[in-house]
């Protein structure tokens, strides 16, 4: 009897030990920045490398994708992903000029769709995306020199009648659409029906001047990626200059090839850099907080990261361009 009790106790201890080891292993497997023992602020959640990762490879749209592009969607679906946006119901939109379409991923329902036409236009180089509160989709095509508007069922509504030179980044705030026109070195402002309101910026390196602005985001300020000046400029809603941060270089806090920008619920500013293969996080005054990622193919590593978007739950969606995948992170408060 004593032996039986000891044997049971040993089994119980072994089970507890195994569960403890498993829990420890799961904790150790979590990829976070900064690493322990510091308090984690960013956690890697998921990598989407193919439609298999969302369980949509056998769906109707996946088969249609195979027919159109002549490839196995589960093996290759993103061609040259650039821009990204996330709707309020967490549907992901990815601008892909290589595939000449906008990919649409519904993670909750494991659905895939895409947009390749806007009325009588076939998309050539979609690069920027924004979603308004009604679910309407705004897509910039840098080669067609147009910004197209689609309804929440992905049907074309209209395009903005304006003489863009090279429209790229899009952002929406307070019922206004902000567009970076890289070729015109300026930011153009419209209402959400496409009516022109104002513009600001010209080519140069001074305050309120740009050298190929490529992207922007709108939160407490309008933050513009001033790419070839290797800096971020911040403006009020009316385009009045506030401040700037960053300079050319490959050190933390510097920019080598800044590509895209987003803000989290605390107003922190995230900037991707295609040459440094990371994204850097700054507070809303431009002070560096954290650097995330390095060059590579593993999770949390990047090859020419491009678009970035952050949803209301502080999930961070990043286009890992040359790895042809999307990585999802979480801002931990």
Describe the structure.
- The chain is mostly beta strands.
- The chain contains 2 helices and 31 strands.
- The strands form 9 sheets. A 5-stranded antiparallel sheet has the order 1-2-31-30-29, with no helix packed on it. A 4-stranded antiparallel sheet has the order 3-4-5-6, with no helix packed on it.
- Residues 1-28 and 72-76 have low confidence and may be disordered.
What would a concise description of this structure say?
The protein is mainly beta and 333 residues long.
- Uncertain parts: 1-28, 72-76
What percent of residues adopt helix (DSSP H or I)? 10-25%
Portion in beta strands: 35-45%
What is the terminal separation in angstroms? 53 Å
Number of helical segments with 4 or more residues? 2
What is the strand tally? 31
Radius of gyration from the CA trace?
22 Å
Which structural class do you get from the secondary structure elements?
mainly beta
Give the biggest beta sheet: 5 strands, antiparallel
Question: What order do the strands of the largest sheet run in, or round the barrel if closed?
Answer: 1-2-31-30-29
Q: Which term fits the overall shape? A: globular
Summarize model confidence as the mean pLDDT.
Answer: 89
């Amino acid at each position: 009897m004593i032996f039986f009790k000891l044997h049971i106790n040993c089994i119980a201890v072994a089970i507890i030990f195994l569960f403890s080891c498993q829990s420890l292993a799961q904790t150790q497997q979590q990829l976070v920045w900064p690493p322990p023992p510091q308090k984690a602020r960013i956690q890697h959640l998921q990598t989407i490398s193919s439609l298999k990762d969302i369980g949509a490879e056998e769906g109707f749209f996946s088969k249609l994708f195979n027919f159109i592009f002549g490839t196995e969607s589960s093996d290759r679906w993103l061609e040259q992903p650039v821009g990204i946006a996330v709707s309020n119901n967490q549907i992901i939109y990815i601008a892909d000029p290589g595939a000449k379409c906008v990919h649409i991923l519904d993670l909750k329902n494991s659905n895939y769709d895409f947009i390749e036409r806007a009325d009588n236009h076939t998309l050539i180089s979609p690069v920027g995306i924004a979603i308004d509160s009604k679910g309407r989709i705004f897509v910039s095509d840098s080669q067609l020199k147009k910004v197209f508007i689609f309804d929440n069922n992905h049907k074309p509504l209209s395009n903005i009648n304006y003489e863009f030179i090279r429209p790229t980044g899009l952002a929406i705030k307070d019922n206004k659409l902000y567009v970076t026109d890289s070729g015109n070195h300026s930011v153009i402002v419209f209402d959400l029906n496409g009516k022109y309101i104002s513009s600001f910026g010209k080519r140069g390196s001074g305050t309120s001047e740009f050298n190929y602005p490529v992207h922007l985001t709108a939160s407490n300020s309008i933050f513009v990626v001033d790419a070839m000046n290797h800096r971020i400029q911040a403006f009020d809603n009316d385009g009045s200059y506030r401040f700037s941060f960053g300079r050319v270089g490959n050190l933390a806090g510097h920019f080598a090839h800044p590509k895209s920008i987003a803000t989290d619920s605390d107003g922190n500013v995230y900037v991707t850099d295609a040459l440094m293969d990371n994204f850097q996080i700054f507070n809303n005054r431009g002070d560096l907080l954290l650097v995330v990622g390095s060059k590579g193919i593993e999770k949390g590593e990047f090859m020419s990261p491009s678009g970035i978007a952050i949803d209301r739950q502080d999930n961070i969606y990043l286009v890992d361009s040359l790895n042809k995948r999307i990585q999802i992170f979480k801002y931990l408060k």
